[in-house]
Amino acid sequence: MKVVNPPGSSSLTRPTARCSSGGGLLCGVLPMRSTRDPRPAVARVAKNRPEVGGNAASMPNPVEKKARETRTKKQLHKPQDEPTYQESIHLQLSMVDVLQKIGISRHFASEIKSILDFTYRYWLQRDEIMLDAETCAMAFRILRMNGYSVSADGLSHISTDLSDTRSLLELYKASQVGTSDDELILDIIGSWSGYLLRQQLKSNDAQRTLLLREVEHVLDSPFYTMLDRLEHKRNIEQFDVIEHPIQQLTWQTNQDLLALGVMDFSTSQSIYQEEYQYLDSWVKESKLNRLPFARQKLAYFYLSAASTMFPPELSDARILWAKNGALTTVVDDFFDVGGSKEELQNLTALVEMWQKQEETEYYSEQVKIVFCAIYSSVNELGSKASAVQGRDVTGHLVEIWQELLRNMMTEVEWRTTGYVPTLDEYIDNAVVTFALGPIVLPALYFVGPKITESMVTDPEYSELFRLMSTCGRLLNDVQTYEREYKEGKLNSVSLLVLHSDGSVTIPEARRKLQKPIDTCRRDLLRLVLKEDDAVPRPCKELFWNICKTCYFFYYQGDAFSCQEEKAGAVDAVIHDPLQLPMNLLSDLDYSTWRERIKIKH
């Protein structure tokens, strides 16, 4: 594919997006907070886990994988009939989009960067790229989600055929990547494009084409409510080679793209199965499955880890994420329903005097099981994180657990004394007791960049944590207020009603909370996409991954509390192989895929 630079173009640097400050989270109900204690840091991942090592014989040969990558890049270098600039940009962006959709974009990082740099130069010139609504919307979405500073105002001057399904779909997807409440143009575009797409679905019920099935999926499941690996599997299984997912490419190139997607997913899945078996054994060895009050949510936490931190080399990050997720659920259930006040005080005291274990006295067997699981897990993972970081970070992991239990005890005191906190008091405490700290914060040490102590104390850490936790806490509250009220717990929904003196109903309170939920999500996405400041991009993406996980479980109900609600998703990512026609699989040439595929701007 041959594309030349536009006349007079030059290399341009990417302006850094600015994070706005001020404003109320709850539109006057809940003020913005940005002064919480600093939050943690990051590191490199240990690549080899002897206890969860995959079976090399069952995985595709890495030599074959490399060969297919080379072939893929070469194929995409092949010149086409001289296309216009707009056609070239559309083709290149379509390729980037497909690579991301089937989970193989990391294999083409340098080529994708070249394409996006080229597209960004065109975006700034507001030239031919603006003449086609589909191309313009796709460019805006992909550039923004890859950290380029693009204004939504660029979408305000485009025109489109209101019956053009592909253009409407791209405009709708672009409207979802807002990073500020002030981007009203995105809300407007999302409203009318969504309406027109739904009208098309109603009038085409008899013939559900591939495109209309995609429309239905996008309308039902915004991108921030879906987990990456689930989407990759869905897109691979629906990848239509015969009809050319990228129309301008050859049948063979599309087939090679599918081959790489299949190989990449299958290789990862075999690793996930090994890791999950190890984690299941850990739960039994730790006796967590013997606690009658505890929900067993290991599968859900491993699903969220494997679906968002899916590259094979992030094994330690996935293991930590799943272990601490299972542990925080047990602790949360212990404080809510399983433990007496004396047991909770004993557990909190044990964690506070972490370094004085010779003085340990357990109030009950339940306390012993819970504390020993926390103690052994934190020390093991802290040792690995310290080795990766080149400094002792175990103490920081301990502090995260100490803060969690202190704040949980505050809620116990409120409940036992009948104290009704203000909404501000509740949120300030609940961003910690939502218990995302022990899950995401230690995992930062394993995702790549090394983190200095000064990074841990930077306000950006606190703000990322606050936005992530507030968004998750409010999503949870909106869906669980009835159950929690029966258990004697107050949350933001019931507090809005109580403090309104009867002027706000439960449905109104739930609607009122949607605004701060949206605001937190957009503000978090803006911070995540902002060019690296204190927090490196790979680390910031973990906060976004947790936010998507919260949406995944609480977007349309309380799926987390239901043992079977997301069981199909667990099986899809961890256990069930890809479902593709056997005749298609037999035609996939794994030995030479990258020889033919080559991306070039």
From TrEMBL:
Origin superkingdom: Eukaryota
Keywords tagged on the record: Lyase, Magnesium, Metal-binding
Named cofactor requirement(s): Mg(2+)
InterPro entries to which the protein is assigned, alphabetical: Isoprenoid_synthase_dom_sf, Terpene_cyclase_plant_C1, Terpene_synth_N, Terpene_synth_N_sf, Terpene_synthase-like, Terpene_synthase_metal-bd, Terpenoid_cyclase/PrenylTrfase
Residue span, Terpene synthase N-terminal domain: 73-219
Compositional bias annotation for Basic and acidic residues: 63-72
Biological process per Gene Ontology, one example term: diterpenoid biosynthetic process
Name this polypeptide is given: Uncharacterized protein
Organism, scientific name: Triticum aestivum
